[in-house]
Specification:
alpha/beta, single chain, 57 residues
């Protein structure tokens, strides 16, 4: 099955790492993960960029 995951993000530094780890560790991982940032002012965009295979920040 071909699945894409879209995650919205705004100042989610506290949760985004755990969220992405959970999504990427699924038994049948998604073919695409896109994070849409809405102007975060914390370090969450940098955390997202550290994950390979995740786009959109």
């Amino acid at each position: 099955m071909d699945v894409a995951v879209i995650i919205t993000l705004f100042n989610g530094e506290k949760w985004i790492r755990q969220t992405l780890e959970s999504v990427l560790s699924q038994e049948d991982p998604p073919s695409e993960v896109v994070v849409v940032d809405d102007g975060s002012e914390d370090n969450s965009p940098e955390i997202v960029r550290a994950f390979s295979g995740v786009t959109g920040v």
